[in-house]
Amino acid sequence: MRMVAFCITILHIIMFNVTTYAQDTNIEHGDEVTHLNVSNVIQTEWSLDLSKLAVLTGEQILVWNTEDWQLLYTIPDAYVYEMAWHPTGSMIAGLRAGRSEELWVWDGDTGELQDQMLDNYLKIS
User: Fold this and answer.
1) Which residues contact 78 (CB under 8 A, 6 or more apart)?
2) Which candidate in 41, 61, 94, 99 could, as Cys together with 75 as Cys, close a disulfide (CB 3.0–4.6 Å)?
3) Which class for 104: exposed (0-12), middle (13-18), buried (19 or more C-beta within 10 A)?
4) What sign for the dihedral angle of Cα 66, 68, 71, 72?
5) Contacts of 28 by beta carbon, 8 Å cutoff, 6+ apart
6) The pTM is what?
7) Does the structure show a pLDDT above 90 at 35?
């Protein structure tokens, strides 16, 4: 089943089965698959194999298994403004801003922090 995630408001993410879309992709013609109640949604990212959906909020990253829509894990205190999956799905990277930009890397299966890298060239003194 091919799906698409829509962030309709900052409080809801709704997944639709795109194989049931009409030719004009009118959303009323899709079948709702699941509805996730998440506050302050900034970004949604599918893993390349579509087995996981990561949702970035203002302070955390939530990762769902897309087969049964169970929450796999939460990365608390992420505070990143952008995230992306590694092509293998083995890692999630996020950019954090402050006095310098930081790249944070978490394990894609467990959510455990793997690495932090500082961009020293962007430091402002």
Assistant:
1) 56, 59, 60, 61, 94, 104
2) 61
3) buried
4) negative
5) none
6) 0.73
7) no
Q: Tell me the CATH number at 73.
A: 2.130.10.10
**For 79-108, how does the pLDDT look when each residue is reduced to its tens digit (9 = 90+)?**
899 999 998 889 999 998 776 788 899 999
In 10 A of CB 62, how many CB atoms? 22
End-to-end CA gap in the chain: 51
Token look-up 């500082």 returns 118
Q: Which two tokens stand for residue 111?
A: 């959510």
Number of structural domains (the chain) is 1
Report whether 64 contacts 52 (CB < 8 A): yes
121 vs 2: CA distance, rounded Å: 42
60 and 77 in contact (C-beta within 8 Å)? yes
Average confidence (pLDDT) over 36-52: 84
For 35, the domain range is: 3-122
